[in-house]
Amino acid sequence: MIRTEDLTKQFVTGKGFLGRKKTVTAVDRVNITITRGKVTAVVGESGSGKSTLARLILRLLPPTSGRIYYDGTDITTKRSSELREFRRKVQVIFQDPFASLNPRMNIMSILSEPLKIHRIMPREQIKDFLESLLESVGLSADVLNRYPHEFSGGQRQRISIARALTLSPELIIADEPLSSLDVSIQAQILNLLNSLREEKGISFLFISHDLNVVRYFSDYIYVMYLGRVVEAGLSDVIFENPAHPYTLSLLAAVPGSGMRKKGRHPAGEPDGPVHAQEGCPFYPRCPERLSICNTRAPELIEGSGRLVACHLQQ
Amino acid sequence: MEGNSTSIVSTWQIFIKNRLALSGSILVIILFSLAILAPVIAPYDYDYIDRHHILEPPGREHLLGTDDLGRDVLSRMLYGARVSLAVGFVAVGIATIIGIVIGAIAGYYGGFLDRLNMRLVDIMLSIPGFFLILTVIAFIGPGIWNIMIIIGLTSWMGVARLVRAEFLSLKTREYVLAAKAIGASDFRIIFRHMLPNSLAPVIVSAVLGIASAVLLESGLSFLGLGVQPPYPSWGNILTQGQANIEIAWWLSVFPGLAILITVLAYNLLGEGLRDALDPRLREGR
């Protein structure tokens, strides 16, 4: 349903002497496919470019190069007036429910805005529609006249989800929708998302660093490291038998994953993407690095039932 | 700025606890009432000439004395208050609207428009405002409407910078991105989502701006380039005061005090508002 082709985003961090631009590559030639009716997950540490990728796909940031296809049409350079259909069918849920609702608008205005913009229904019907929508995300109808600051994190996230649902989307891009919530609330929200998938058949692009959640929720996984996809495959395959040392170390870090012995922890923090150069981006931290890894970046190629970018596997 | 709706109550509480700010706002209210009620409470018309009492010191018949034509200084000052307030509000209104539009475009669109607008701000700021106004008045002639418009057209730069800075930080907020993702137009995002969340510093700067507009108007009227006699303004009463300073102190002192108190009142009000609206300053109190 959505496919990206060598999607790349570079941020300009500063201008050097004589106007030479310094750039950081946040997303580096990423090819991902979001399949209708499935949950596609993107995992990785903070700084791996997951959120930037989400913003690129949503056309909230202009890509430096590469293409985005929505149902086969290239939407990379379409103007906002030509994106109406896309904007209606693809919705977003952000990480921080305290930042994603306008503090000066009440819930009624927040939730009715998408309906007004896309002229979905006459004004008189909006209230009834929103009341039943709120019920379906587990909120009562009397929240409509209240303001975002009156709600807890979990309730706000439900409101964000309700906003994403107003336009009956086909795809919801969820950028770490759970990570700023308490663990008990996380489970409730995850169940809500799960029921949306099962009952309404909504597809998800689920961005997370929480592998337990991803394992439970997703069908297909992309593992990103410093802007590149290092491993991709069906969720069962990846979790049973990770191939890339980075994936292995991520899984090893999850308590109770049974991967403790197999994977060794990588040394230190991820290098800033500023320093990533010719070799494999994981080279400085990789417990199993070879000499070739420092000089040539491995390609993402097919191997043992998934895609993996590692010299060890080739 | 995190000033969301929770803070309306606490903003008010902080504001009324601040004695100086409170007295500033009471003064502003008094000045307003006096200006509005001028035709009712003024003992004489502003241009009534009492030929028997020329340059009379403050006394029972003329509370603040009379000028060199025998006109009542108190009455003239009350009418002058109307000029000051009108100029303050209209000029600041014009400046704020221009500043918001220029700053919003620069902050929201960035890139070329940002550079263009901000260089315009730099150019405007590099010209000494008072002399620019003098030059323009020389061409289009003095008069109350002209100076309102000119003061407005030459004092929007601060607001533009403020709005731009707020917009730069709001642009990446998730609720703004969320609005974009549901397909809201630029116009809607700017006016529904960003502007309401960046108004607090603009209001403060507008209130402080009124003070400097009042001062500017008095200065121009003093030089004879503002409000034209016989219509009174605190500035042009001062001009008469200067001509007669050795024999009639009341002609200088009272309008001078009026200007001083007005400017002080707006500054106190503005600073009080700033402290109450800015949560970053709250912590240290």
H/E element sequence of chain B: HHHHHHHHHHHHH
Low-confidence stretches of chain B: 1-5
Integer count of domains of chain B: 1
**How many DSSP-defined strands of chain A?**
13
What shape does the CA trace of chain B take? Answer: elongated
Largest interface: A-B, 31 and 21 residues
Mean pLDDT of chain B: 88
Query: What would you report as the Rg of chain B, rounded to the nearest angstrom?
Result: 22 Å
The CATH H-level homologous superfamily of chain B:
MetI-like
The multimeric state of the shown protein is heterodimer
Question: Strand count, sense and closure of the main sheet of chain B?
Answer: none
Structural class of chain B: mainly alpha
Helix content of chain A: 25-40%
The largest sheet of chain A has its strands arranged as 7-8-9-4-10-11-13-12
Distance separating the two termini of chain B: 18 Å
Number of DSSP strands of chain B? 0
Mass-distribution shape of chain A: globular
